[in-house]
Amino acid sequence: MCGITGWIDWQEDLTKRADTIEKMTDTLELRGPDASGTWLSKHCAFGHRRLSVIDPANGAQPMIRPVKQAEDQDCVVVYNGELYNAPELRKELEALGYRFRTTCDTEVLLLAYVEWGPACVDKFNGIFAFAIWRTDEEKLFMARDRLGVKPLFYRREEGRLLFGSEPKAILAHPDVSPDIDAEGLAELFVIGPARTPGHGVWLGLSELKPGHCLVYDRNGMKMTTYWKLESRDHEDDLETTAEKVGELLRDTVERQLVSDVPVGTLLSGGLDSSALTALAVRYYDKTGQDQVHTFSVDYVDNDKHFKAHDFQPNADAPWIERMSGYLATVHHPVQFDTPELVDALQAATLAKDTPGMADIDASLYLFSREIKKKATVAISGEAADEIFGGYPWFHREEALQAETFPWSLAVGLRASLLSPELREKLRPQEYLSDKYAEAIGEVPHLPGEDQVQRRMRRMSYLNVTRFMPTLLDRKDRMSMAAGLEVRVPFCDHRLVEYVFNIPWEMKTAGNREKGILRQSLEGVLPHDVLYRKKSPYPKTHNPHYFQSVRSRLLDRLEDPSCPLHPLINVDRIRELALASDAGSHLPWFGQLMSGPQLFAYLLQMDFWLRHYRVNIVL
Q1: CB count in 10 Å sphere of residue 523
Q2: Residue 528 CB coordination number (10 Å)
Q3: CB neighbour list of residue 327: distance below 8 Å, 6 or more residues apart
């Protein structure tokens, strides 16, 4: 895993701008702490920061290889990701006459492009964001993986294109100003911490969407969709479906365990993480490897303050102990206290380049730092709930009937938090409705579907294309800020394509959420773990956290120079903060973000506006 950046310019000689590309590259040091490299030509400059995972000795980037049948011309690549089918592609390319100099997947990806051109992406199984420059054609080709696990942003201007794994690389260019307009503010205050696909929040910044390619040359820029969710008739019976789900999951886990550096798994004792850990243990046993290392996160005194509710029916700790003992893993529990979580809000904001999921981001950042001390790669159960329909909103009539995103039901509350002037500019309800209509318009319904199947396909599509990217972005940015690569087997596109078309009554086999996944794991997990109720990523229940972020926010609002003042309804914020229940159960975003996270988000917003010296252009 790595950080990539680049600059294409038809009007300037970039060989004279080494200092700029090095500055852009340096912003990504945390993503790639092991090595740095740049490559410059007259009209193209690339930068790369490397986190060594496969072939540490020989996988340096930018990597250069000759164009097929044109030894005097080159292809140059910067790449962030992993190809899990690299061994098969390598054999196919060797049969076509190619000779490899390394054992890393970077060379496989680059030679695949040399052989197949843009169609190479159709052959890839993995997570990736990369850019390739052809010196003979003076053409840039960029692509991003199908589900958007790896990030890639770009900024196009007259005669110029800048790109980077994170916005900070582009913002480091001396000609780029840290500006944000009304639409960017709407993303933060109405959609945030989610983000509309393709939106870069910063003015002039875009995100290359998942499953998309971009070509940029002297004729301009062309965007192509190479993958998207498609609806197909599901013809397998229940038993066959469960077998296929189990086989796909086993295959992708085994592919993703390949590494030349230490690998561990994240273990919460829930269905998803337990399944991946169990499959990893089986693979390690089969291949004669040592015990699997597992990692869990919790918070000081959480056991004293935990209260069961629909979203979090029971605590994780006993289940983690159950699974670690059952699988005989080497377990590493990690625990944080409230002051650490509050202090890490700023580091999480810097990692994301915008405000994010508050303490949920901060804890993942701290967790990743601890894992990094013992492993460089971690396996995570992210995305199973979006793909298999595990969240409560898949099963609640009010959420299914709501004509909005089920994680954004409190738009009225959000609007009330804005200053009257900004509320008039952003029109929150209208903005959210437009983005929802845009998403609904994309849903690939099958002819002849009944009402229930149409509704559940719509909910699945919204989760995979709108909510899941929020969590994937969080996972990438927080983990890579600690130099940790996190792999997400449930995002294997073959599994996602297959499960998307499983009928809802089969997905909920046994009248249970994620029923088909549970059935596919019979014999892999103990019965009690297999049928444990969903419990989300753990957050702190310590009231001291809420008291701390509330106090800090109120202190910031007392400062006349606080940059939040023109943007928010200060009296309304104070009213919520001083209410009798202090907003502790205030619904704000999704299932994990309520009162404490709202105030922490505003703290992040204040820090972000000041640290990045954001210019608001209205």
Answers
A1: 8
A2: 9
A3: 277, 278, 281, 292, 294
Task: Report the alpha-carbon distance of residue 134 to residue 137 in Å, rounded.
Answer: 6
- Series of mean pLDDT values for 10-residue runs along the chain (618 residues): 94 97 97 93 96 73 84 88 96 96 94 97 98 96 98 96 98 98 98 96 98 97 98 97 98 92 92 97 94 94 66 77 96 95 97 96 97 95 96 93 93 95 97 98 94 96 97 97 96 98 97 97 96 79 89 96 97 88 72 88 98 97
- DSSP class of residue 293? E
Q: Which two tokens stand for residue 94?
A: 């060797």
165 is in an annotated binding site: no
Domain boundaries in the chain?
A: 2-225, 238-530
Binding residue per annotation — 381?
Answer: yes
Q: Are 341 and 299 in contact (CB under 8 A)?
A: yes
The CATH code that applies to domain 238-530 is: 3.40.50.620
- 247 contacts: CB under 8 Å, gap ≥ 6: none
105 labeled part of a ligand binding site: yes
Non-local (6+) Cβ contacts of 409 within 8 A are 399, 402, 587
The Cα 79–Cα 262 span in angstroms is: 21
**Over 551-575, what HEC string results?**
HHHHHHHHCCCCCCCCCECHHHHHH
DSSP letters spanning 329-381? -EEEEEEE-HHHHHHHHHHHHHHHTS--STHHHHHHHHHHHHHHTT-SEEE--
Q: Collect all residues with Cβ–Cβ distance below 8 Å to 407 and sequence separation of at least 6.
A: 194, 393, 467, 589, 590, 591
Distances (CA, A) of 296 to 27, 471, 537: 30, 18, 10
Give the C-alpha separation, 198 to 185, whole Å.
15
> How far is Cα 324 from Cα 327, in angstroms, rounded to an integer?
5
User: Out of 3.40.50.12160, 3.40.1190.20, 3.60.20.10, 2.160.10.10, which CATH number does the structure's domain 2-225 have?
Assistant: 3.60.20.10
Per DSSP, the residues of 199-222 read B-SSTT-EEPPTTEEEEEETTEEE
Does residue 143 sit in helix, strand or coil? strand
Q: Return the active site residues.
A: 2
